[in-house]
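Pilot study result, target chain (498 residues):
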Amino acid sequence: MLSFFKNKKSTDKKQSYESIIKSAEKSDDFKEAFYQNPHTGAKFSLHFITTLIDGKILQEDVLPSLLSKDFHSFDDLKKLVPVLDIQVSKDESKIEQKLYNGYTVLTMDASSKEFAFIATKNEMGRKVSQPEVEFSVVGPKEAFVESLSDNLNLIRKRLPIKELLVEEFNIGKMTHTRVVLVYLDGLANEANVNTMRQRLQAIDFDQIMDSSFIEQLIADNSYSPFPQLLDSERPDRIASVLVEGKVVVMSDGSPHALIGPTTLTEFFNAYEDYFLNFSIASFFRLVRVFSVAFSVLITPIYVAALTYHYELIPKDLMATLITSRQEIPLPPILEALFLELTIELLREAGARLPTKVGQTIGIVGGIVIGTASVEASLTSNVLLILVALSALASFTTPVYRMSNTIRILRFPFLLFAQLWGLVGIVFCFCLLMGHLLQLTSLGRPILEPLYPPRLKDLKDALIRFPFNKQAGRPEFLRTKIPFRFRPSEGKRKVDIDE
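Predicted structure:
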């Protein structure tokens, strides 16, 4: 398959104008029109794909200018036609690319080797709306859309400086998707920029439909369930990480941008934290970390305690557990798996169904199935409460990709809890930490600032210090300008009389 595309690409370059037009005529939405200027007698033809162009531009701007004015040659095009993007070229290999990207191809003489490409693309897309995944009560209410040009406009509006650089790539043998690398020149580490640039240039894939494809293709470890690039739909967050010195990748057709390098702690930090007081934001961050630990470990601990470690359970609690489980024929592991899989089924069904139906299925289904399973003596009341709290706690993760990873992690812990009890849970935790210690993001340790330990970066990790205490940019980024402001200015208190 790979050799097929390579051969196809090489033959495309050798295609003549006639063969390209003959191939395009096989499609019914290809049109070819011939005209003659009544004043000068100049003959010309237009070739375009009707489903890609904006007919108003062609009928109201291009044709009236070419027919009602003195049109002699290609040199007159830019003077007569009120379209900004007009290109004249002798390269026949560009005809196919321009034709299928919304350009109208103009030819004047069959013997001429020059072609004009007039931008008449029909730009279709939704308007800028509120964030749906990273919604916040406080702060801006703008989110990226599927148009790459609109998304870059939202970023440049927040960073109107010459240092903001955009490098464009064309990726995908069949989709030819526009992908851009965005960073601040003179601030971002050249190693990070070069690493991202090389990985984008090395992508050899036939289709790029979304930034998720890129994230999987350039990840340091494609087999890891943990995301290694942070994705965001908020322009304000992208502008903020660019100022920190990170690099951003954006794809045409995707409302999400990829941020790198990133750390594990960033996946549990909501951007809304920066709009709140530092003490409140720090409390919410700690709640999220506790919720993740609770979501992953509470069900395995229940299985381990009831299977191997009865002596660890207080007598009063043991009486409650015995009463709750006295009529249940299933062992704790099957009971836990039944409820966990039921929760996953409800989540998946609610996500795939239409919004109103999905909400009804999630609420009614959870109540009905939970109540019925307890009354049928398939599960205990205690485990039902624990699994419900575990599912609720997993929703506190602000990044959707990481929340999916947290959902999956519970099942290996459940398996090891059934095999070896609490020892199995500790063993599984050691395996998890061993994997995270080796995991990197653009070559940078993903556990930073926890490992390797960097005390200065802890100011904006699990907790958030006040802004006047965060004079330095993250150390692991190795930015060219390490400080946001002079540390002495952050400590200085201005008197009201000054």
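One observation from the pilot: Residues 1-14 have pLDDT under 50 and may be disordered. A full batch analysis is planned for the follow-on phase.
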